[in-house]
Write a structure and sequence with these properties.
Mean pLDDT: 78
Structural class: mainly alpha
Pfam families: RNA_pol_N
Helix content: 25-40%
InterPro entries: RNA_pol_su_RPB10, RPABC5/Rpb10
Strand order of the largest sheet: 1-2
Strand content: under 5%
CATH class of one domain: Mainly Alpha
Low-confidence stretches: 1-20
Protein name: DNA-directed RNA polymerases I, II, and III subunit RPABC5
Subunit structure: Component of the RNA polymerase I (Pol I), RNA polymerase II (Pol II) and RNA polymerase III (Pol III) complexes consisting of at least 13, 12 and 17 subunits, respectively.
Family: Belongs to the archaeal Rpo10/eukaryotic RPB10 RNA polymerase subunit family.
Order of helices and strands: EEHHHH
Distance between the termini: 32 Å
CATH topology of one domain: Arc Repressor Mutant, subunit A
Radius of gyration: 15 Å
Length: 86
Protein backbone atom coordinates (compact mmCIF):
# COMPACT_ATOMS: atom_id res chain seq x y z
CA UNK A 1 0.00 0.00 0.00
CA UNK A 2 1.48 3.33 -1.03
CA UNK A 3 -0.20 6.59 -0.09
CA UNK A 4 1.59 9.79 -0.98
CA UNK A 5 0.40 13.28 -0.26
CA UNK A 6 1.95 16.64 -0.98
CA UNK A 7 4.28 17.67 1.85
CA UNK A 8 4.31 21.27 0.70
CA UNK A 9 0.68 21.58 1.69
CA UNK A 10 1.40 20.32 5.19
CA UNK A 11 0.64 16.65 4.63
CA UNK A 12 3.14 13.84 4.86
CA UNK A 13 3.98 10.90 2.67
CA UNK A 14 3.34 7.47 4.12
CA UNK A 15 5.60 4.83 2.64
CA UNK A 16 5.03 1.18 1.92
CA UNK A 17 5.95 0.16 5.46
CA UNK A 18 4.01 2.91 7.23
CA UNK A 19 6.97 5.16 8.01
CA UNK A 20 6.62 8.88 7.48
CA UNK A 21 8.72 10.35 4.72
CA UNK A 22 8.44 14.11 4.41
CA UNK A 23 11.06 14.57 1.75
CA UNK A 24 9.22 16.27 -1.09
CA UNK A 25 11.88 16.96 -3.69
CA UNK A 26 12.45 19.36 -6.56
CA UNK A 27 11.24 17.71 -9.76
CA UNK A 28 14.37 18.72 -11.67
CA UNK A 29 17.40 18.46 -9.37
CA UNK A 30 16.07 16.31 -6.52
CA UNK A 31 16.88 18.71 -3.66
CA UNK A 32 14.67 18.30 -0.58
CA UNK A 33 12.34 21.31 -0.43
CA UNK A 34 9.29 19.96 1.41
CA UNK A 35 10.65 21.16 4.74
CA UNK A 36 10.91 24.76 3.55
CA UNK A 37 7.22 25.56 2.89
CA UNK A 38 6.27 26.66 6.42
CA UNK A 39 9.45 28.73 6.75
CA UNK A 40 8.73 30.33 3.38
CA UNK A 41 5.22 31.33 4.47
CA UNK A 42 6.63 32.71 7.72
CA UNK A 43 9.14 34.86 5.88
CA UNK A 44 6.42 36.19 3.58
CA UNK A 45 4.33 37.15 6.61
CA UNK A 46 7.40 38.90 8.03
CA UNK A 47 7.26 41.22 4.99
CA UNK A 48 10.08 39.60 3.00
CA UNK A 49 9.76 39.73 -0.77
CA UNK A 50 9.48 36.39 -2.55
CA UNK A 51 13.04 36.61 -3.85
CA UNK A 52 14.51 37.57 -0.49
CA UNK A 53 12.60 34.77 1.26
CA UNK A 54 13.91 32.18 -1.20
CA UNK A 55 17.45 33.53 -0.79
CA UNK A 56 17.12 33.31 3.01
CA UNK A 57 16.05 29.66 2.70
CA UNK A 58 19.12 28.89 0.60
CA UNK A 59 17.23 28.15 -2.62
CA UNK A 60 19.56 29.40 -5.33
CA UNK A 61 18.60 27.19 -8.27
CA UNK A 62 15.69 28.44 -10.33
CA UNK A 63 14.22 24.93 -10.52
CA UNK A 64 13.86 24.79 -6.72
CA UNK A 65 12.61 28.36 -6.53
CA UNK A 66 9.80 27.65 -8.97
CA UNK A 67 8.67 24.71 -6.83
CA UNK A 68 7.72 27.12 -4.03
CA UNK A 69 6.66 30.04 -6.21
CA UNK A 70 4.35 27.89 -8.31
CA UNK A 71 2.84 25.88 -5.47
CA UNK A 72 -0.91 26.28 -4.87
CA UNK A 73 -2.10 25.10 -1.48
CA UNK A 74 -5.38 23.53 -2.60
CA UNK A 75 -6.16 21.94 0.76
CA UNK A 76 -6.44 25.35 2.43
CA UNK A 77 -8.66 26.65 -0.39
CA UNK A 78 -10.93 23.60 -0.33
CA UNK A 79 -11.39 23.73 3.44
CA UNK A 80 -13.20 27.07 3.01
CA UNK A 81 -16.16 25.31 1.38
CA UNK A 82 -18.76 23.39 3.34
CA UNK A 83 -19.64 19.92 2.09
CA UNK A 84 -23.01 19.49 0.44
CA UNK A 85 -25.74 18.52 2.84
CA UNK A 86 -27.93 15.60 1.81
Amino acid sequence: MWAKRNVLSGLTSIGEYGEENDQERCFTCGKVIGNKWEAYLGLLQAEYTEGDALDALGLKRYCCRRMLLGHVDLIEKLLNYAPLEK
